[in-house]
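#lab-general

N.A. 3:47 PM
ok so I finally got the sequence cleaned up, no stray characters, all 194 residues accounted for. can someone with queue access submit it? mine expired

B.Y. 3:52 PM
send it over

N.A. 3:53 PM
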Amino acid sequence: MQLSIISYPHPTLRIRSKPIRRVNKELRNIAAQMLDLMYEAEGVGLAANQVNLPIRIFVANPAGERGDGEELVLLNPELQMPKGNVTGQEGCLSLPGIYGQVKRPKSIRLSAFDIQGNPVDRVVDGFLARVIQHENDHLDGVMFFDRMTEEAKREIDDQLHELETVFESKQNTGGIANNEQLIAELDPWYEKYT
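B.Y. 4:20 PM
back already:
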């Protein structure tokens, strides 16, 4: 199965993903493909929603380079104990070329499982904390601009509107299925992993 990164406003980006109940060879292949896509797109994180999968898994590497930094594959992540606040610039592989300032907790406690099923439990801070929070938001159907101030969001409203117009145009001409069909296509994934 060939995955690709979907663009805003694809409806899967607004789906709250379901927890994964089983790990199999296909899921490990999905994780490997997600890492490949993330590196190809020069990103530092990629959530399953962004490759049109409604399951709770994301990949990340704050260094953004294969073989450099810490490569993470996290299943069913939960974030707790937020501490402090810091504002930083964020972008998104589903919103190419759009960036904005987002205020997030400086550190968080991460509980998750890796692709082998081992528990992950640690406190993360700095840029990695931001990446993890951004990707975890995706799993809840939240986009980074949802967390921006109204004033900051106004600066990117035209770019968002342009993406919405292009997507709707493709739907109107039959290049992309309508939202109901796109959502219905997710059902087999729920049966397979949740």
